């Protein structure tokens, strides 16, 4: 059902191309059915009577029919291929757009590996089935039905061979398809598994090498590889069995036609030309069935893939994103959390519990706490990477759920905990924050982010190539480039999620001093592990177990917050050691 739904939905815009395929395949098939009859006429009427003119005339007709058949077949395959590729393109586009609208909760539920597989391999399987269907959907049934009719015209006495061989072939095919369906479903799951392992190993290659875990990871990949190999071998075994069986039926049918047809020719009940034509028609019928078999063999895997694609396309995001701006863009940047509660699916308790605080423009609000206290989760609620389950998050009194993505991007700029750069150049990465930024503006942002020096030392400077993820620059350089990217957007609210952790103390101090002058009128929220980064903050919020257990300046918390004191003392003891 999922496969039919996808096919009808995505093939609809290409009705004209599909109609062309149908007409061309019809012409090609009719021409192919006409050829054995002409051949029989040459043998029975031309050769037997020695009529050279009849042989030449009929032969020229056969040549013309062959040219028409070849031309229409080529054109039909061309339009069929264009339609199938267009359907695949549209399907990949919609899967990507759907994934792009999903919240972090839905993406986490699926997993990156399976989403990649569904948007590539699964779509390709559906696309290939569309191609095969367009190439064979007209020719196969017409070749089969027309072949039966034409064979009966030549000699009805041998018709029982058709009624025996075709059903036998269908029964065998049906049994093989029954065996293949669960294997194809398992194969797609195994592809997800090997993609997951491979993606994880490539992403974490530095950690793998740092801990000398290559043998363990190689073994883990080998297990995933062997799992998909085992399923593929089972599928291959069925395919290996299928084609010899089909060829055996073809050869047995051919032998039967020659055997029983020979007796009929000897008895004068059938002419040699008719026997030849009947044999060709029977082979056409069985070849049509075989082509249908080949297409049917692809259906089980395509059905599984279509179900997986429909599952993604049918997933509704847990977030309601306004499409049209019905509120004004906040201009001040006052961020307020009011009794906010949030928990991840399956978690025993909320990550944030009845959290309330206000961050004001021109002031820096710092968030500190132990690992797992909810600091990053808190920051992710502001740009709506997740939505609060209870309470509200507002900017200038407007709930973030009422703002469009574009409005949120204008108001909120975030430097994530894991700084990520895209493949391209330094300039292209920085212009993610402002596509129209000039080179001078790029250098100004780099100067504030303390990245100007190392960029100027690069051979191509702003045009220096950046690898995917920024793997060809250091962690501190990635952080500074991501900070510069956020500065270029010039939002009203800046979110720094532990964005200074890879910087040395001196660079950290210079960066914070430069930021103070560049974004002095904006609301700044900093998540930090290092206390030295936030000692000058106007407000420090201490989290423990998702709850606010301390609030105030550095001096006030040192005097009155036991949790904050423990954090400071632990860092001082480490530094002293």
In short:
The chain has 577 residues and is of the alpha/beta class.
Question: What structural class do you assign from the helix and strand content?
Answer: alpha/beta
Question: Which CATH class of the largest domain is shown?
Answer: Mainly Alpha
Shape: elongated
Instruction: Could you tell me the CATH topology label of the largest domain.
Output: ABC transporter transmembrane region fold
The appropriate CATH architecture of the largest domain is Up-down Bundle
| Count of discrete domains | 2
- What is the name of the CATH superfamily of the largest domain? ABC transporter type 1, transmembrane domain
Description:
This protein is α/β, with parallel strands linked by helices and 577 residues long. The chain has 2 domains: 2-313, ABC transporter transmembrane region fold (Up-down Bundle), CATH 1.20.1560; 335-558, Rossmann fold, CATH 3.40.50.300. The protein has 20 helices and 12 strands. It has a 6-stranded mixed β-sheet with strand order 6-9-10-3-11-12, with helices on both faces. Strand 4 and strand 5 (398-399) form a beta hairpin. The longest helix is centred in the middle third of the chain and has 53 residues, at 214-266. The radius of gyration is 35 Å and the shape is elongated.
Characteristics:
577 residues; alpha/beta; ABC transporter transmembrane region fold; Rossmann fold; 2 domains; four-stranded antiparallel β-sheet; 20 helices
């Amino acid at each position: 059902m999922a496969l039919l739904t996808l096919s009808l939905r995505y093939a609809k815009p290409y009705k004209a191309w599909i109609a062309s395929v149908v007409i061309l395949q019809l012409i090609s098939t009719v021409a192919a059915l006409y050829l054995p009859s002409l051949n029989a006429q040459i043998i029975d009427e031309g050769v037997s009577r020695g009529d050279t003119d009849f042989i030449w005339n009929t032969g020229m007709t056969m040549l013309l029919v062959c040219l028409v058949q070849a031309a229409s077949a080529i054109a039909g395959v061309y339009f069929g291929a264009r339609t199938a590729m267009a359907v695949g393109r549209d399907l990949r586009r919609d899967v990507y757009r759907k994934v792009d609208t999903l919240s972090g909760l839905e993406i986490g539920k699926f997993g990156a590996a399976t989403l990649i597989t569904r948007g590539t391999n699964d779509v390709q399987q559906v696309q290939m089935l569309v191609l095969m269907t367009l190439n064979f959907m007209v020719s196969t049934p017409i070749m089969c039905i027309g072949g039966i009719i034409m064979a009966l015209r030549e000699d009805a006495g041998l018709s029982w061979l058709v009624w025996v061989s075709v059903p036998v072939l269908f029964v065998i095919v049906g049994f093989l398809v029954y065996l293949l369906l669960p294997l194809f479903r398992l194969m797609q799951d195994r592809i997800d598994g090997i993609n997951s392992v491979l993606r994880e190993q490539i992403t974490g290659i530095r950690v793998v090498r740092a801990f000398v875990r290559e043998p363990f990871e190689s073994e883990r990949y080998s297990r995933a590889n062997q799992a998909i190999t085992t399923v593929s071998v089972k599928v291959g075994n069925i395919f290996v069995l299928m084609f010899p069986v089909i060829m055996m039926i073809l050869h047995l049918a051919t032998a039967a036609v020659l055997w029983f047809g020979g007796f009929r020719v000897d008895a004068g009940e059938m002419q040699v030309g008719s026997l030849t034509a009947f044999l060709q028609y029977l082979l056409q019928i069985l070849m049509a069935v075989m082509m249908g078999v080949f297409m049917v063999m692809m259906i089980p895997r395509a059905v599984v893939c279509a179900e997986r694609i429909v599952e993604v396309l049918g997933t509704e995001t847990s977030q309601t994103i306004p499409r049209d701006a019905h509120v004004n863009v906040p201009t001040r940047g006052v961020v307020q959390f009011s009794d906010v509660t949030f928990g991840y699916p399956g978690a025993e308790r909320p990550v944030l519990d009845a959290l309330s605080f206000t961050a004001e423009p021109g002031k820096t609000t710092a968030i500190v706490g132990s690992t797992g206290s909810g600091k990053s989760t808190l920051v992710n609620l502001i740009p709506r990477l997740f939505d609060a389950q209870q309470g509200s998050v507002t900017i200038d009194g407007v709930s973030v759920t009422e703002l469009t993505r574009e409005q949120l991007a204008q108001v909120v700029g975030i430097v994530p905990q894991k700084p990520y750069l895209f493949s391209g150049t330094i300039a292209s990465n920085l212009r993610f924050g402002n596509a129209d930024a000039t080179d001078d503006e790029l250098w100004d942002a780099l100067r504030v982010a303390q990245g100007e020096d190392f960029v100027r030392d690069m051979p191509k400077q702003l045009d220096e190539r950046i690898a995917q993820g920024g793997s060809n620059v250091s962690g501190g350089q990635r952080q500074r480039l991501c900070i510069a990217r956020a500065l270029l957007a010039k939002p009203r609210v800046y979110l720094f999620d532990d964005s200074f952790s890879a910087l040395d103390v001196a660079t950290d101090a210079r960066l914070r001093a430069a930021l103070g002058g560049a974004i002095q009128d904006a609301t700044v929220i900093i998540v930090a592990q290092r206390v030295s980064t936030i000692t000058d903050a106007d407000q420090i919020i201490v989290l423990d177990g998702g709850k606010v257990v301390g609030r105030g300046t550095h001096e006030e918390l040192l005097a009155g917050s036991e949790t904050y004191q423990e954090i400071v003392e632990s860092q001082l003891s480490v530094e002293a050691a």
